[in-house]
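User: hey, got a sec? need Lipoprotein folded
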Amino acid sequence: MNLKKNKMKSLLAVLVLSLVTSACGTPLPSESTGQVPPQVPQENKENKENKEKQPENVAQDMAAEQQEKEILVVVDQEPKPIEGNSFDFFIEQLPAGYSLASMQWKSEKTDIVSTIEQAIKNDREGVPGGNGFYISGNGQFTGFFYKDELKGEKGKLILVFQNEQGNDKTWEKELTLK
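Assistant: Yep! Here you go:
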């Protein structure tokens, strides 16, 4: 009987706590009308700049913003206790229905492209010529190995994602190889 009372008290406490925390941050009604005052967007410098842009630039910026929201990739260029030069990247978020199709390092001097199959093979057999992408056997790690000659090279890491219909979405980031 005492156990049932304790359970009921605990459930009641959780319910009260849930109600209190869900009410936090809720605007209070206006004292005179009993209604919540409307939120007025404030114009800031960024909004002003966006209004001054040409329509095609605005569309490009919106597409880039949408891409950033759909795809999140983290690049790790910290030195590793392994022989050779490399960086790792981790795909934290990708668009629904899409998967990684290919990876590319592109600079003025170098253009290296690997499919998923090639990157998996590179992990098993070694990266040909010392330059290229790899995906570990269990798919947990992805990265790019490069020779000393490429150190200091500025370029882009380009990741292409594809869905079953063959549509592509591209993510890219400018990097300097360390």
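Quick note: Residues 43 and 177 are 40 Å apart (CA to CA). Let me know if you need anything else on Lipoprotein.
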